[in-house]
């Protein structure tokens, strides 16, 4: 079936079951940002492939809400489907809840699969329908009934990380979680977020493309942890290690019935953004519930010394692969045909040469010319084009290593560039460095500093419609949830920047129909001096890849910015050069020269 036929089949089910409005979010049962093939329900019913978005269907309307990263992409992918794009945050655009409230008739029914909606979102929907005296039915996955050839849940095996990678045992992590539970006044903690469960158990999986996560839930008490998982994914050693920590194994979906049997005298800790609405509603009535951020969020955000050492080593390996790729691109463009997809595949071959490499840490963004104006453009066989021989090539890629994950954006210049391209490239570099060289007091949030990354662009009357940075997990999610650089408040990202945090710095400029530029380094938060004013912090860049000098206008840079760039490139050369061939090393010397 094509998209309009799928929507028609969904509406037939809505009519049959008595739904006036039906909502289809992006999430899986664990409120993950990126989901496995089985959970790509919203993509199936709308054709939009972005990582964020919510679809809403009435008897005669269909809408898709997504954020600024995906406006251009969604506009293209929704063409001809009958699904209208609602640009979140734009003036005059209703929120999902506002649209649902206006679309519902008095006494009507809103439907959704409660397993793919977070507690907090469910509460907002309850408020939205209350104005119409309407009902919510969260028990049916209607799109799943339409999707005849839906992929099965992943059955790929898990793998374990030793303490030489994690720097901390499961026993220690559980003790810390239980201490946090005590402070919250709880004796039961229900966890659905995949990265939180993986962090506690030191297990990883391959259940979501690119992200080493394991489909699982957990219920932690003061003396036991129940792990809900497909037991076939675990080998005997893993089971033995879990048992040593009094972690018992239960079928993946059994948690929904088990939660109904919780002792009503318990106090249950849940995260309203990271536990699904259906599971939450299975907690017995009368049970005291504490809603707050999972304590594991902050614990895993602050990397320990072993993790930091490993992450830096992973970035050094990745820098070698990226630099070899940059050399290959620069010396072969115009001589052989290179397309967006073949360029991405070539980078993968260089990464595979590095010890400890597993797989790419997210779907690679390789965008030539006007494709780069689509912030999260990912090439497909249908959209793949040869790289421009006169223009810019934006790349945002990453590698997953046993020592950690990387996330790096570089924009490469080929042939002749326009003056605007060079100005935009240089401005983005200034945005990146303006933030990277900040010094700030402990307690500062990413919201306090985001303006530093935008100011050089704002001075030119330009803005980028996405966050400036996100914290990065240790071989888990590339986007973690503790904090980020943003100018718009997100409640779940308001934790202060802390020593040991790894966070990205990725400003950009996007000119529709022409080009895009993004330059991204990962930053490690370090302790600076401490005095009567408090503890000062600063950033240490841990991405070691050249920034393309062919696209920079040196005269636009201040003396300080030129010095910062030269110092950065000096470090890049020192780290990467010993791992290159003679020709590559001579080339790198030129591309890291002082300007």
Automatic annotation (TrEMBL):
Start and end residues of each Peptidase M24 C-terminal domain: 535-595
Creatinase N-terminal domain boundaries: 6-131
UniProt xrefs under InterPro entries: Creatin/AminoP/Spt16_N, Creatinase/aminopeptidase-like, Creatinase_N, Pept_M24, Peptidase_M24_C, X-Pro_aminopeptidase_P
Keyword Protease: yes
Presence of keyword Glycoprotein: no
Residues annotated as domain Peptidase M24: 311-526
Signal peptide start and end residues: none
One GO molecular-function entry: aminopeptidase activity
Pfam family, one: Peptidase_M24
Annotated keywords: Aminopeptidase, Hydrolase, Metal-binding, Protease
PANTHER family tied to this protein: XAA-PRO AMINOPEPTIDASE 1
Protein name per UniProt: Aminopeptidase P family N-terminal domain-containing protein
Naturally occurring in which organism (per UniProt): Dorea amylophila
Organism phylogeny: Bacteria, Bacillati, Bacillota, Clostridia, Lachnospirales
């Amino acid at each position: 079936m094509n998209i309009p036929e799928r929507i028609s089949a969904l509406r037939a089910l809505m009519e049959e079951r008595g739904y006036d409005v039906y909502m289809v979010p992006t999430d899986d049962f664990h409120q993950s940002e990126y989901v496995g093939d089985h959970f790509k329900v919203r993509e199936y019913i709308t054709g939009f492939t972005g990582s964020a978005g919510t679809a809403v269907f009435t008897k005669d309307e269909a809408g898709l809400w997504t954020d600024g990263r995906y406006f251009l992409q969604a506009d293209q992918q929704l063409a001809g489907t009958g699904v209208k794009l609602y640009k979140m945050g734009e003036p005059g655009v209703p929120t999902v809840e506002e649209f649902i409230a206006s679309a519902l008739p008095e006494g009507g029914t809103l439907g959704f699969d409660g397993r793919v909606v977070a507690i907090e979102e469910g509460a907002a929907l309850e408020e939205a329908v209350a104005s119409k005296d309407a009902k919510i039915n969260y028990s049916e996955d209607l799109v799943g009934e339409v999707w005849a050839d839906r992929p099965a849940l992943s059955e790929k095996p898990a793998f374990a990380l030793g303490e030489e990678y994690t720097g901390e045992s499961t026993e220690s992590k559980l003790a810390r979680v239980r201490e946090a539970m005590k402070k919250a006044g709880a004796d039961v903690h229900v966890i659905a977020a995949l990265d939180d469960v993986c962090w506690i158990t030191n297990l990883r999986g391959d259940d979501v493309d690119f992200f080493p996560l394991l489909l699982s839930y957990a219920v932690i008490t003061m003396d036991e942890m129940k792990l809900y998982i497909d037991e076939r994914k675990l080998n005997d050693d893993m089971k033995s290690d879990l048992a040593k920590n009094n972690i018992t194994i239960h079928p993946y979906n059994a948690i929904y019935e088990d939660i109904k049997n919780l002792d009503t005298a318990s106090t249950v800790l849940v995260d309203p953004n990271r536990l699904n609405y259906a599971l939450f509603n299975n907690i017995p009535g009368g049970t005291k519930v504490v809603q707050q951020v999972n304590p594991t969020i902050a614990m895993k955000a602050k990397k320990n010394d072993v993790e930091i050492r490993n992450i830096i080593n992973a970035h050094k390996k990745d820098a070698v692969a990226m630099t070899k790729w940059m050399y290959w691109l620069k010396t072969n463009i115009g001589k052989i045909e290179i397309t967006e997809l073949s360029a991405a595949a070539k980078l993968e071959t260089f990464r595979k040469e590095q010890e400890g490499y597993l797989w790419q840490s997210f779907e690679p963004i390789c965008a030539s010319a006007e494709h780069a104006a689509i912030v999260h453009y990912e090439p497909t066989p249908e959209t793949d084009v040869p790289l421009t021989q006169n223009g810019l090539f934006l790349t945002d890629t990453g590698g997953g290593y046993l020592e950690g994950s990387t996330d790096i954006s570089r924009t490469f210049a080929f042939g002749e560039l326009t003056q605007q391209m060079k100005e935009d490239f240089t401005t983005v570099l200034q945005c990146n460095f303006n933030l990277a060289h900040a010094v700030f007091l402990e307690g500062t949030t990413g919201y306090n500093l985001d303006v530093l990354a935008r100011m050089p662009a704002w001075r030119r009357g330009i803005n980028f419609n996405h966050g400036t940075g996100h914290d990065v997990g240790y071989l888990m999610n590339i986007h973690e949830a503790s904090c980020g650089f943003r100018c718009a408040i997100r409640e779940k990202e308001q934790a202060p920047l802390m020593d040991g945090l790894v966070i990205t710095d990725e400003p950009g400029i996007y000119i529709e129909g022409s080009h895009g530029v993004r330059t991204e380094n990962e930053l490690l938060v370090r302790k600076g001096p401490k005095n009567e004013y408090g503890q000062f912090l600063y950033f240490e860049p841990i991405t070691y890849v050249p920034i393309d000098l062919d696209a920079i206008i040196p005269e636009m840079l201040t003396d300080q910015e030129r010095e910062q760039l030269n110092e950065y490139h000096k470090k890049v050369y020192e780290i990467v050069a010993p791992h290159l061939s003679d020709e590559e090393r001579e080339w790198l010397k030129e591309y890291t020269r002082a300007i």
